[in-house]
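Quick note —
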Amino acid sequence: MLGSILTATYRSGIQDAIAGLPPTIASAIESSIAFTQSPRVADFGAAATPIIAAAKESFLSGVTTALLTAACVLAVTALLTATFGPRRPPRDALLVPPASVTPPPPTR
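Predicted structure written out below.
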């Protein structure tokens, strides 16, 4: 789930930066931020700088969104567990008084 959130956020954020690029390059950048470090992107010279910056920003935004989602899921799970989870018995209930031991009657 978190990977899907990261990917969707990254792809959404990179769209404006890759508009007008050749389809194969745009598709590769959209598929992986690692491609922005390849020589094929560097061949664009100074025009590659805003593409790389947008890719980094989109990736960080995706990671942030995914981690915030994970934190929210964790918080809700903790709240539900605290509310509906098993309860501990009171401390006094754990202290069982010793049973009165009566010796067996003598046998004759």
